[in-house]
Amino acid sequence: MIPATACILIGGDSSRFGSPKWRAMIGGITVLDRLWMECEILEHRYVIGKEKPHDLDKPYVSDSLDIKAPINGLRTSLDIAETDWILLLSCDLPLITKDILVNLWDQTNSKKNIIVPKVRERLEPTCAFYHKRILDLCNTRIEKNKLGLQALIKSIKSHSVNLTERSGQFMNMNTKSDMSHAEKILRSQISVRTLS
């Protein structure tokens, strides 16, 4: 069991997608249920968003601030977590798996504040481990309207983990076409596991 808190973000507008991404069905289950299962190896799990959906059956926390940016979800997650580390995970990344989370967790250490994947030279801040000690910094950046997670990561001690060889699993789902592509990737992964 990883001694950290998984915080799955569902608060985005999903304007390009046309409906809540977390409800999208991939491989016969919703994106949220898929990510929830992959995070079962963490000590605690929460869903973070603006307002709790009436039919949601998972532990839920509403963002305390009314801003539309992932740093708001990060701030809420760090504030409510009972563990030193939190995993921030967005429903934009429906193909993240337990082994990726374990790989990232294995890189944590007392001198770093953030453990973040790097895929093709791009950081993936919405699938990263953050230490609770950066909560005050998050608050300061929000007060100054510095809302970008990429800039936050670059401003403090962090460690990037090159996961370019797993780039398919970091496919960002913004449109229904992306969802179809995610289905294809998932089917190919299942086929490979079946053959091996």
What does this structure look like?
This protein has 196 residues and is α/β, with parallel strands linked by helices. It has a single domain (2-195), classed as Spore Coat Polysaccharide Biosynthesis Protein SpsA, Chain A (Alpha-Beta Complex), CATH 3.90.550.10. It contains six helices and ten strands. It has helices spanning 31-38, 70-80, 98-105, 135-143, 149-155, 176-195, and strands at 2-9, 25-26, 29-30, 42-49, 60-62, 85-90, 114-119, 122-123, 127-131, 158-162. Strands 1, 4, 5, 6, 7, 8, 9 and 10 form an eight-stranded mixed sheet that branches. Strands 2-3 form a two-stranded antiparallel sheet. Residues 191-196 have low confidence and may be disordered.
